[in-house]
Amino acid sequence: MSLEEVRRDWTRLGADEPLWAVCVDPGKRGGRWDAEEFLATGEDEVAAALGRLEELGAAPSPGRALDFGCGAGRLSNALARRFASVVGVDISAPMLERARELDRSGGRIEYVLNTGPDLRALPDASVDLVYTDLVLQHLPPDAAAAYLREFARVARPGAALVLGVPDRERPTFKGLVFRYAPWPLIRLAQRVVLRYPAPMRMHTWTAERIAAELEAGARAAGRPAPRIIASDEYWGGDHWRHLKHFVTVPSDGTDGADATGGEDV
């Protein structure tokens, strides 16, 4: 699996079913997502996540936010209600076209096509919040690791990160299929049985692996390591256990020790 394969698959998903591909709901296939209802789901999610950061004493400055894997702009619009500017990055040009159509920010969102293995369009220490939800698992593991290191580079001291990923398959039939079945078979089932416009590959990410990549990125940038301060289980389902990791970037010269020592990791 390569980034080019991911780009091709999500280009097709963005062209055929952009809103459903972002929020997979069997009842919304065939263009049945109402645009405002779709955006409202992003508002609910961002409000809850930023409320959690505030509860943890880690609310970021309301300067610039990065929405990584922004898709059709579901979260970007919600972030733009709370930050002075938002940059939404995605690998799919059709997704970004739809995001621009749904832009309700009055010009505060910049959408950027990013097909490479890094975030070179963003300077060091340039964002106050990195937000990504249910994106990293669709990428090849080495590419996801590189982006995690980039998050540590582009985050300002005192910034926060919100990272939503599955950390393991559930011990159910569907979960075990994804754990043990060969990818070509899963790909065929998604295309033929489930009739996906393009397949969605999945990888799990543990808190320990995430913390290690963030630390490596910070070290390369000469910065203290970000620290996971909480990992909350959310969005159930019978395939994977999903965790939303809340991360702080030190601003006082601390070394970020105990990087996986937050709540419920």
Automatic annotation (TrEMBL):
Keywords: Methyltransferase, Transferase. Pfam families: Methyltransf_11. GO terms for molecular function: methyltransferase activity. One of its GO terms (biological process) is methylation. Residues 66-162 form the Methyltransferase type domain. InterPro entries: Methyltransf_11 (IPR013216), SAM-dependent_MTases_sf (IPR029063). This is Class I SAM-dependent methyltransferase. It comes from Nocardiopsis endophytica.
